[in-house]
Write a structure and sequence with these properties.
binds zinc ion; alpha/beta; single chain; binds guanine; 37% helix; seven-stranded mixed β-sheet; globular; 435 residues
């Protein structure tokens, strides 16, 4: 069999470690080359050194002046909420009642679900996001629609059926038994089929009975390489509600802990109102936090505490949480993450933010070596980022004096316009239209 070899020239950046804890966190080649063989990274490094290794007839795609970086990973997003992004409400719980539940009801209709899934994936790819951890709705067909669409595009995606059997409208309610049965069927149908991975997805503790959480935990034990995703400690009113519903639990996250849902590949959205013991448990169990700054600011939920999370050694990543989040762009998510950190008295360098949106997320998902950087053998999911995408970016980045300044300008001023092209497993899946 002949190898399909492709090479891409540009300024190349990827991560090897967390910049907050390592001096040798990243690999940067101003004039770099990425070599892709059969959809996987074969090599990444200096153009001068690597191009001599290419067979004479290899086409070199020239992205000089632009950055080649791993595709972004969004670790918490709701595809059914694409159509209700930017819907105003006074906080999380009224927002769920007024907009979210009626919107999710429509996913009973498979045609509607397929249509929104296509739009959602287009939007992710336009923003340079090549992997996401995705909430579907309570309807199993919403999961089939999503994975069918992502499989057709060959994308590495994680998704799951929302489980909720109380405190929600009848039209969105499963039962403990039906939720578990449907989840198991979907795991068997989709988990590790092609690039699809399944996430067991109880929405959040208030909408699940103890029996449902117990069954979710049992599935998490029976299928240890599946993912778990849920919300925790997002909003103060929600936390008070959980205290009422689970008076015997030490804390909100302890509810999940007591049902065996803290383990590697568990992704907890928000994690704002945690205490020290909660953070310790997250670190001990390698459960990960999906930090959702645009959502937290929009819904007025609170400010994530980067310093305390780092002190405890919690696995961190960034996420949009659309439709609570206000942008599909991980660059815009970094923009708001930076400001959240400042308001909490911490400082988040741009280098760290790009790490969190790539290798940090892959590590949080136990997928290092598969996605998140350009290590040899990794899947070639990468993006071409244009520092001259807008007049303002062009002016600002022309004056940059360091890599940090370049990345910072992209994070603060960039969005979907800065993504010139997106590649998944070596195939171009988005190219920005220029006027
Ligand atoms: N908590 C429970 N469900 C949701 C949701 O859909 N979005 C957000 N942001 N928080 C939630
Ligand atoms: Zn969410």
């Amino acid at each position: 069999m002949t190898t399909n070899l492709q090479a891409y020239r540009g300024s190349l950046l990827h991560f090897l470690a967390d910049p907050a804890f390592s001096d040798k966190s990243h690999d940067w080649h101003e004039d770099g080359l990425l070599i892709v063989a059969d959809g996987k990274v074969q090599a990444a490094g200096d153009y001068a050194t690597l191009h001599t290794t290419l067979p004479a007839n290899t086409v070199v795609h020239d992205y000089s002046g632009k950055l080649l970086i791993p595709g972004f990973i969004d670790t918490h997003v709701h595809y059914p909420q694409s159509d209700m992004i930017a819907s105003p409400a006074e906080g999380l719980l009224p927002w769920l009642e007024t907009y979210t539940f009626p919107t999710e009801r429509q996913f009973e209709d498979t045609v509607h679900a397929a249509n929104v899934a296509e739009f959602f994936l287009d939007e992710l790819l336009r923003c340079g996001t090549t992997t996401a951890m995705v909430y579907c709705t309570v309807h199993p067909q919403s999961v089939d629609a999503f994975f069918t669409a992502s499989e057709q595009r060959g994308l590495r995606m994680v998704a799951g059926k929302v489980m909720m059997d109380r405190n929600c409208p009848d039209f969105l309610r499963d039962t403990a038994e039906s939720g578990a049965r449907d989840t198991e069927t979907l795991i068997q149908r989709w988990h590790k089929r092609g690039r699809a991975l399944y996430a067991i997805t109880p929405r959040f503790a208030p909408t699940s009975t103890e029996r449902q959480l117990q069954l979710a935990g049992e599935l998490a034990t029976a299928y240890p390489d599946t993912f778990i995703q849920t919300h925790v400690s997002e909003n103060e009113a929600e936390c008070a509600w959980v205290r009422e519903l689970f008076p015997n639990s030490r804390s909100y996250i302890d509810v999940y802990d007591s049902y065996g849902m803290m383990r590697p590949r568990a992704m907890y959205g928000h994690c704002i109102w945690l205490n020290e013991r909660d953070r310790q448990r997250m670190a001990e169990t390698q459960s990960a936090a999906a930090i959702c700054p645009t959502s937290n600011l929009f819904l007025g939920s609170g400010l994530f505490d980067f310093e305390r999370a780092d002190d405890a050694g919690v696995l961190l990543s960034l996420a949009t949480d659309v439709g609570g989040g206000t942008s599909f762009s991980m660059l815009q998510t970094m923009n708001e993450a930076y400001k959240v950190a400042r308001l909490k008295g911490s400082y988040l360098p741009a280098l760290r933010m790009f790490y969190l949106a790539t290798l940090g997320a892959a590590r949080s998902m136990q997928l290092e070596g598969t996605i998140g950087n350009f290590t040899a053998g990794a899947e070639a999911d990468f993006i071409v980022v244009d520092p001259q995408a807008t007049p303002l970016l062009q002016r600002r980045t022309a004056r940059r004096e360091s890599l940090e300044e370049l990345l910072f300008a992209l994070a603060l001023l960039g969005d979907d316009r800065a993504i010139a092209a997106t590649y998944s497993a070596g195939r171009q899946v988005h190219v920005r239209e220029t006027t």
